[in-house]
Amino acid sequence: MDNGAPTPAAPNGDAPPVMTRAMTEGILFTDQYQLTMAQLYFREGLADRPALFEHYFRANPNYGSHQAGFCVNAGMAWLLDWMEAARATRADIEVLRSHRSPSGQQVFGDDFLAWLSEHGSFDQVSIRAVPEGRVVHPNVPLAVVEGPLGMVQILETSLLAHCNHQTLIATKAGRVAEAARGRPVLEFGMRRGPERGANAATRAALIGGAIATSNVGVGHFVGVPPAGTHAHALVQAFMALGLGELGAFRAYAATYPDACLLLVDTIDTLGSGVPNAIRVFEELRAQGHRPVGIRLDSGDLAYLAVQASLLLDQAGFDEVGIVLSSSLDEITIFQILAQIDQEAGRYGIDPARLVSRLSFGVGSKMSTSDGKPYLDGVYKLVSIHDGAQWVPAIKISDNPFKLQTPGDKDVHRLYDRRGLATADVVSIAGHPLPTDPLVLRHPFDPALRRSLRPGDVSEVEPLLTDVLVEGRRAAEPATMAELRERRERDLARLDPGVRRLVNPHTYHVSITDELLSLRQDLVDATRTDVTDTEAVQP
Amino acid sequence: MDNGAPTPAAPNGDAPPVMTRAMTEGILFTDQYQLTMAQLYFREGLADRPALFEHYFRANPNYGSHQAGFCVNAGMAWLLDWMEAARATRADIEVLRSHRSPSGQQVFGDDFLAWLSEHGSFDQVSIRAVPEGRVVHPNVPLAVVEGPLGMVQILETSLLAHCNHQTLIATKAGRVAEAARGRPVLEFGMRRGPERGANAATRAALIGGAIATSNVGVGHFVGVPPAGTHAHALVQAFMALGLGELGAFRAYAATYPDACLLLVDTIDTLGSGVPNAIRVFEELRAQGHRPVGIRLDSGDLAYLAVQASLLLDQAGFDEVGIVLSSSLDEITIFQILAQIDQEAGRYGIDPARLVSRLSFGVGSKMSTSDGKPYLDGVYKLVSIHDGAQWVPAIKISDNPFKLQTPGDKDVHRLYDRRGLATADVVSIAGHPLPTDPLVLRHPFDPALRRSLRPGDVSEVEPLLTDVLVEGRRAAEPATMAELRERRERDLARLDPGVRRLVNPHTYHVSITDELLSLRQDLVDATRTDVTDTEAVQP
Questions:
Q1: What is the pLDDT of residue B403?
Q2: pLDDT above 60 (res A532)
């Protein structure tokens, strides 16, 4: 086994091909059926036929006791990195050539492998997408992918793995940030995250709402220097060596006199940790340093925050921060702040001032989207070129909510007179939106309609932009600051009912009458085909 | 941004250091506080002090309506790959050197960076661990890590990210396989998995219970050739081109005459998909080929399986398989099979025969451990060398279930007279287990005890084995077949009450009287320290 070694050369003679761990993250990072379909397309002369696929999700995450009213779009930049690097190498081809069916035949023929060897890159692929960081909604194309059928089919798995995952985590982080009332959220989730996928989760959390991360590599990579202080192990080691919690805190203060944030729950938070921290803070103050804060990592965090605040205030450290951590998510933070609102006054503490000194370290539950650990994003063929023209494609389903809307599309976000987003409208690409009235149809229940007059709409904003044009990036990657500004701007223009953590309003996603007709015609034609097929059935 | 490029040389002069994506997966794949602690240890002369950490988890996953009664251990082999490759490069060091505090100081001093540059590898680290594939239980050390304090501290994050994640997914896959009553489970989860972490999920699912995967790269890497047929896109493309579902099926049969498995729900499962599949199967049969099966991917899978089975039987295809997929997990599979047991007879179908032709394609919910997407595994300092001898370390907590058991330990699994596993016993390392009687104490409630006489125990099996000795692997990596055999052997020796999917029995994990005394003495001594500290508090 191997990890990160360069791609080996193709094997000589009959030596079995070498499959390295690094190769599992290249062009072979895909589902087998993408390759079996690609071979079929190749054999049928369709592999280079232009095709259009869409990525969208069907429903906002439902975490059980609470639900998302929107998502935060993320993942495209890292997908583009992957697409740039992923191409069929000789080693990849030899591994595929070695794959035998139970009867001993090559699963992939030399003819197809020669094609893949030559065409096995994403250099011919173009993508239009909703920019990362934007607030997005179900049943709206987040990305429209155009390219040769064979390669855009092979792309499906990696696109979904990149974009579903980061959108899921950015959404969860956005919720945690909302619950935190603007106080800092620090992402701590690597240790229980999904192995290397924890890196993507960190990036997504930073886009979605975390202001910093403990993840050293990704923090530096995305330009947000990582944050971190110490763990229980430091105190344990000093205790075992006979130097005690106080000794550990003093050593920490000596090493980081201007960044002294102490974890106070290794033995007894109020009986030992906070008093020892205060003692070290006094020593620091005497030396002219300003202590940063304490971290509470177990117990009743609302109660302990109030009590620790009292002790710190009494010692004259009313500007020292309090970091809360321990299995936090949006609902526990919501509950902690509600409890502080109700109880702090009883101890003579102003709840608003206490909240203003808090930060939140959020780990496992944010980085794995606890309650709903996957986004149901799909990637569907919506159009294919028949040699003469583009023809729309559809998938019908017994479940009306899985009915797919065919063809190449535009997406516009409509803002109402207050300047708040009121609907996302999906329409046939290149066709102007009707204006007086603009009739919005529910995508799955056409009887539900809404008419907008020109005076009702303050702005019509197209959402899809070019991100990749025939394999070349259309723009420099956005900085993390830009991604976060996009999210904040969108949140400020979202109805509070859609933003709330529990039972949010449903944001309107609509299709135009024209797109509805196209879909209905296609469903009718398909159903007719089925009847014909049945008629000839023996 | 960059993806997978080789590590660049250190920057010249004042150029900012280059941080690549590949570097996020090396030694910098850690939490910032591991590095701030390592610097502190270095400054205090402790960085090279031998230390012992343990990895264990506190509770089996609780998925809400159902709960795991045990876990399947996984992840160590890929952690070892990572440890072998990860070492502080010049580029890593320069990135760390560039990190400035808000006041403009270097966060990491040149003295510490020189140490890290020289010692920043895992060449001095040794690990004893429970072998991958074994059934494991809460509060039992899965891995015991020994090495220089600074480096085993830095290791924490990556060890947890590797081993928590794979153990979580292997456990979920084991449950899915149990629910499937021995019928094949195919892992399909990449598309909604955690980006590159989906690869680790695939490996873990194969260890835990899946017999095959759609993941091309990992399938080949672990020696389980990937499986896959076609998606809706194939049928959609043929329909859009005027060739229809039947055309798509015929093309598939022409390309894969001996591996023809058709997805039948793109339009109408029973009205179109199954009849068209049967027609193509008849054509294949006429040519001397044997069709493989159909896949049902939406709707009421139990009902559709019965109806499809009827149609296939009527056409003489009673040996053709039926693959079920669509948001499956252990509970949905359990329900589908229960419904088939109850309803198949009504249609003249033998339920056992129908079940014997089923396979299950399981994706998102298995690959993300839906219901509980993280394992609460921790990595705790249990002992440190004080220069003269090893001294045990402890973390006390207000929550008795988070109390940690100190010191270096052995773990033995006891089998009862029936040959079934009856308890895992944690004891002080190197101390023989008492035999007559062997008193087992509940780890958190010492009043709960159980006494075993020699005749009660048919076998005493040590669970920890050397996997890494001072940076060198103690053995060749196990093959996937070996890992699966370990799991199957352990499952066969597990009480059915512990194995069941809902409300399982609690398997006994115990500590010896001697270990209990050591812990109590340490708790008492620590509490005394606390009192002393308070006494001198101003």
A1: 80
A2: no
The number of beta carbons lying within 10 Å of the beta carbon of residue A59 is 14
List all residues of chain B from 198 to 257 with a beta carbon under 8 Å from chain A: 198-201, 214-221, 225-237, 239-242, 244-246, 251-252, 254-256
Give me the mean pLDDT over the B29-34 stretch: 98
Residue B196 touches partner A, C-beta closer than 8 Å: yes
CB of A4 within 8 Å of any CB in chain B? yes
B75 interaction partners in chain A (CB closer than 8 Å): 195
Cα–Cα nearest to A251, from B526, B48, B42 = B42
Question: Position B101: which residue type?
Answer: S
**Residue A505 included in any domain:** no
Q: Is residue A478 part of a domain?
A: no
Model confidence at B29, in pLDDT bands (50, 70, 90)? Answer: very high
Residue whose token pair is 């590590």? B7
Q: Which helix (H) or strand (E) holds A39?
A: helix A32-43
- Reported confidence tier of residue A530, pLDDT bands at 50, 70, 90: low
Q: Does B303 touch chain A (CB under 8 A)?
A: no
Place of tokens 């068209």: B276
Asked if residue A283 is part of any domain, the answer here is: yes
Residues A58, A165: Cα–Cα separation, whole Å: 15
Q: How far B437 CA lies from chain A's nearest CA (Å)?
A: 33
- What digits encode the pLDDT tens for the residues A27-46? 999 999 999 999 999 999 99
Three-point CA angle A74, A78, A79, nearest 5°: 90
Q: Does residue B375 fall inside a structural domain?
A: no
Name every residue whose Cβ is closer than 8 Å to that of residue B406 and which is 6 or more positions away in sequence: B382, B383, B392, B393, B394, B518, B519, B522
Q: Which helix (H) or strand (E) holds A53?
A: strand A50-57
Range of the domain at A263: 180-367
Interface contact B216-A166, CB threshold 8 A? no
Tens digit of pLDDT for each residue in B170-203? 999 999 999 999 999 999 999 999 999 999 999 9
Interface test with A, best of B39, B105, B195, B214 (most A CBs within 10 A): B195
Which chain B residues are closer than 8 Å to A242 by Cβ? 386
pLDDT at A12: 45
Interface pTM (ipTM) of the complex?
Answer: 0.95
Q: How many domains does chain B have?
A: 1
Split at pLDDT 50, 70, 90, the class of B528 is low
Residues 94-113 in B contacting A (C-alpha not used; CB under 8 Å) = 95-96, 99-101, 103, 105, 107
What confidence score (pLDDT) does residue B7 get?
Answer: 38
User: What pTM was estimated for this model as a whole?
Assistant: 0.95
Mutation target vs A (from B196, B262, B382, B537; most A CBs, 10 A cutoff)? B196
What CATH code is carried by the domain that includes residue B246? Answer: 3.20.20.70
The pLDDT assigned to B95 comes to: 98
When CB atoms are compared, the residue of B36, B372, B379 closest to A228 is B36
| Interface test with chain A among B132, B152, B216, B395, by most A beta carbons within 10 Å | B216
Asked if the model's pLDDT at residue B420 lies above 80, the reply is yes
Q: What is each CA distance from A43 to A110, A342, B211, B284, in whole angstroms?
A: 12, 70, 30, 18
Element (H, E) at B90: helix B90-97
CB within 8 Å: B534 and A365: no
Residue B287 one-letter amino acid = Q
